[in-house]
Automatic annotation (TrEMBL):
PROSITE patterns: HIT_2. It comes from the Bacteria. Keywords: Hydrolase. The keyword Glycoprotein does not apply. GO terms for biological process: nucleotide metabolic process. Residues 1-101 form the HIT domain. A motif (Histidine triad motif) lies at residues 86-90. One of its GO terms (molecular function) is hydrolase activity. This is Diadenosine tetraphosphate (Ap4A) HIT family hydrolase. InterPro entries: Histidine_triad_HIT (IPR001310), HIT-like (IPR011146), HIT-like_sf (IPR036265), HIT_Hint (IPR026026).
Amino acid sequence: MCRRWLEEPELRIAELDVCCVMLNRDQFFPGYTLVFTREHVTELFHLDTETRHRLIDEVSRVAGALNTVFRPAKMNYELLGNMVPHIHWHLIPRFRDDALWPTPVWSRPHEEVLLSAQERRNRIAAIRGALQEER
């Protein structure tokens, strides 16, 4: 996740107190966003209580912003870390008309949806704007 932040600056949405927020390159699920700790930590229990609470607050704030922009039927929160051992959430707005509804996003492969540079900038700007309102 640390490397991804450096290598894909065009996907950056925000740097918060505890987390970094990035748009996922594949937008098959519109609004799919990654939220990861600025500090390289692998488990929630490695964080002190105050930092863990602030982290959850920031994840919730990003989810609220995504809800404002995309108005999904449901927000999916995935915190795995098996392949990328760094605390990170996949926040995935889900819609009743998406191709994999109501199954998990990992249930079947799909073709990637890559936005044009302008579409990506517009989507990031909309999320940033909503994130500012979530304070």
